[in-house]
């Protein structure tokens, strides 16, 4: 954490729950994080649950996001959801390139790049996820992998666009496994990624960019992660499904 950057703590609810569950969770999150002045908070329910959550969050500082979007503007793309649709139901953020999309839907870096451009074009804040698989880490290819992901996903952006992107480092081996990256492992990659962004878009953009960590973030490890100078928040999966544990993560500084 660096006082120059406002942290963001976002809950990725993945494919959990239903509308009533999501509304109740959002209400409880808004209530329990109401005093949080030190960071931005966002929740990302599955598409059909977004309107129910939007109603609950109206007037609350908790931001609303989606977990994916189409790279296309509009048209015959059955099952897809456009940036404009998301924006029209109150989303301000959207996750792009999550490893579960990359793995289960074979999303590649080029598609991720098109989605980032589409999100920015609609005024949404994209949360661009990158991260290595276990085999890549063990082969010493972590930095090379995340650099490629960032370079391709951010290709063609100008400084203004790049400065609106939030990066999320999510090592695939740490997602849903209970195996968190150590603060040192996270900081190594975050610092490296900031350097990559500096090389692409310059010092100002890199210094302002929020780089979140994701992968088994819990109330008992958030403090140590946030103590790293280049960790600017968290993308929380499992622990965001419970209002108590998510709010303890948000209120890490207390
Ligand atoms: P977990 O916190 O369940 O490991 O999930 C992390 C994640 O994928 C957030 O996007």
Core attributes:
254 residues, alpha/beta, TIM Barrel, 12 helices, globular, binds 1,3-dihydroxyacetonephosphate
Topology:
Layout: E1 8-12, H1 19-32, E2 40-44, H2 50-57, E3 63-66, H3 83-88, E4 93-96, H4 99-104, H5 109-121, E5 125-130, H6 134-138, H7 142-153, H8 159-162, E6 166-169, H9 183-201, H10 203-208, E7 211-214, H11 222-226, E8 233-236, H12 243-250
Parallel strand pairs: 1-2, 1-8, 2-3, 3-4, 4-5, 5-6, 6-7, 7-8
Helix pairs in contact: 1-2, 1-12, 5-7, 7-9
Structural commentary:
The chain has a single domain (8-250), classed as Aldolase class I (TIM Barrel, Alpha-Beta Barrel). With 254 residues, the protein is of the alpha/beta class. The mean pLDDT is 97. It is globular and about 45 Å long. Helix 1 links the parallel strand 1 and strand 2. The protein is built from 12 helices and 8 strands. The longest helix is centred in the C-terminal third of the chain and has 19 residues, at 183-201. It has helices at 19-32, 50-57, 83-88, 99-104, 109-121, 134-138, 142-153, 159-162, 183-201, 203-208, 222-226, 243-250; strands spanning 8-12, 40-44, 63-66, 93-96, 125-130, 166-169, 211-214, 233-236. It has an 8-stranded parallel β-barrel, surrounded by 5 helices. 42% of the residues lie in helices and 14% in strands. Helix 1 packs parallel to helix 12 (243-250), helix 5 crosses helix 7 (142-153) and helix 7 (142-153) packs parallel to helix 9. 1,3-dihydroxyacetonephosphate binds at residues 12, 98, 170, 175-176, 214-217, 235-239.
